[in-house]
Amino acid sequence: MSSEAVDHDAQVASVREAFEREFERFALFRGEGGADGLALAEAEGLLRELAELRTRHTSKKSPLAQLMKLVGRVPPDERAAFGQRVQAASADIAARLDEAHATLQAYVARLLLERERLDVTLPGRRPRRGHLHPITLMRQRIEDIFVSMGYTVEDGPEVETDFYNFTALNIPELHPARSPQDTFYTTDGLSLRSQTSTVQIHAMQRRRPPLRVIAPGRVFRRDTPDATHNPMFFQLEGLLVDRGITMEHLKGTLSEFVRRMFGPETRTRFRPSYFPFTEPSMEADYSCFKCGGEGCRLCKGSGWIELGGSGMVHPNVLRAVGVDPEEFSGFAFGLGIDRMCGLMYELDDIRLLFENDVRFLEQF
Ligand SMILES: [Zn+2]
Questions:
Q1: What pTM, to 2 d.p., does this model score?
Q2: Which of 19, 135, 262, 336 places its Cα 20 to 30 Å from the Cα of 1?
Q3: pLDDT winner (highest mean) among 2-16, 188-202, 323-337
Q4: Ligand 1 center to residue 358 CA distance, Å?
Q5: What is the whole-number distance in angstroms between the Cα of residue 346 and the centre of ligand 1?
């Protein structure tokens, strides 16, 4: 071999090496599954880079093309051998490029097909998942707070006897308190409960004191619907009965509740009131969560928002379920869930909560 032939061999080798160095990162992509695991964008990027690499190494200006031109100029006795080497290098490079390209191309096509298959169901076809009703969300939030304070959640029937709805709650027949709590009656003497306080009675009968329960639920009144009234609404009743329970426990519990509900800076205020089933009774207010007590439209300028009624369980209520008021005492409170919902979301009309208009409900 002449020195020139050695030179030519070295040139072929150097062209191959230059290709191999750049092609190394594509060498993995061989055969079916060779590109598995790549992201679509990644595979597409690799395809573009592979095309550039092909141009650099096989185009008319590539070192390989220069070698091919050289074939015609080498001495005839070396020409065939040299030509074969160049051809072999060229074929080899093309084959490797083709294989990587085919693997990546097939992979991209597969991903696109999969994506398209999923995409078809995307707009409008997928059933809307929806979410919980704002009242349910509010109820769960309140429940979480009381459960963390050791209360259990009780449920009770919505259709009640006179005993549970009135008599056991110290509201005997002809008592004036029956009038504002008037409800809907069935023909056989049953009625829709007008307050969740009925669950107090069920709970005390079911599990004897000491007990700590909350009872969220639907209640009914003979109210004409307007922006702030609805003949059906949601209340949450709380009841704690134990030995040695005083007003302090009640005030502490409600103060802690509003702090957890509306923020640690929330203050409480208690006003004397009257309920047949508690004695003494009081209304609890909390400082407005919007203005912090300064006075705003939400709290009607007063700085306070009414939480609900509360008080020490009336001895007659305890007696009605066979609990000795000398041994046990307790407190009870009631909150309006939808009223709280209406305030927190600043609804102008609480009837919106029950109209089931999706455009409204979607906002929560
Ligand atoms: Zn305010």
A1: 0.63
A2: 19
A3: 323-337
A4: 29
A5: 11
